[in-house]
Design brief:
Elements lengths: L2 H5 L2 E10 L4 E8 L5 E8 L3 E9 L5 E10 L4 E5 L2 E3 L6 H13 L1 E3 L3 E7 L10 E7 L1 E3 L11 E7 H7 L8 H16 L6
Parallel strand pairs: 4-10
Antiparallel strand pairs: 1-2, 2-3, 4-5, 4-7, 5-6, 5-12, 8-11, 9-10
């Protein structure tokens, strides 16, 4: 038996115990390869999409287009890249570009690059989050925010965001993942940093 087979638990039962507006909670009964049976919690959440809008200002300095907003979970104001949930039947890329348009009033000026996707917390969540880089944005209108959204549009130098990431208003874990994908991409495209 290989390691993957030995470590995989077989699902015996899955029951929804809570239905919410953002996610559902399921109780999942699983059996290990050596016969142990246990009940576990699974958060059934929609896919998420994050877009990293990058551009150069008039002085040629690399900037990110970001948003500042209040987050109810942490009871704090954060600075983040435009992001949101993927609607049922929607592709992650379409969701990312929709969020960019709704939150900033901008659309991509050039090709969009998929940087990758990850499981945000595989211990108990079953969704994935996708990350996209947009090199250049074009303002096309006003924000089109959801009824309970309130956010500011910010233009912040890339070096400032990277230096502060993981601290203060930049302590959102998904944004840290976005930065990691951006930095890996920038290793092959150093012009994004200079």
């Amino acid at each position: 038996m290989d390691d993957k087979t030995r470590l995989t638990w077989r699902t015996l039962d899955r029951k929804q115990v809570y239905a919410g507006p953002i996610f559902d909670i399921r109780k999942v009964t699983r059996e290990s390869s050596d016969g142990r049976i246990g009940d576990f919690i699974e958060i059934d959440a929609p896919k998420w999409a994050t877009v990293i809008p990058w551009y150069r200002n008039d002085a040629g300095v690399p900037h990110f287009l970001m948003v500042r907003q209040y987050r109810h979970g942490s009871d704090s104001v954060t600075i983040e890249f435009p992001a949101g949930t993927v609607d049922r039947g929607e592709e992650p890329l379409a969701a990312a570009l929709r969020e960019l348009r709704e939150e900033t009033g901008c659309i991509p000026a050039a090709e969009v690059v998929e940087l990758g996707s990850v499981s945000p917390n595989p211990a108990f969540m079953n969704n994935r989050v996708w990350f996209y880089l947009v090199e250049g944005v074009i303002p096309v209108g006003n924000q089109e925010l959801d009824p309970h959204e309130q956010l500011d549009i910010l233009h912040i130098p890339v070096c400032e965001v990277i230096d502060a990431m993981g601290t203060g208003v930049y302590d959102n874990g998904i944004m840290m993942i976005a930065q990691a994908f951006f930095l890996r991409h920038a290793q092959k495209h150093p012009e994004l940093m200079a």
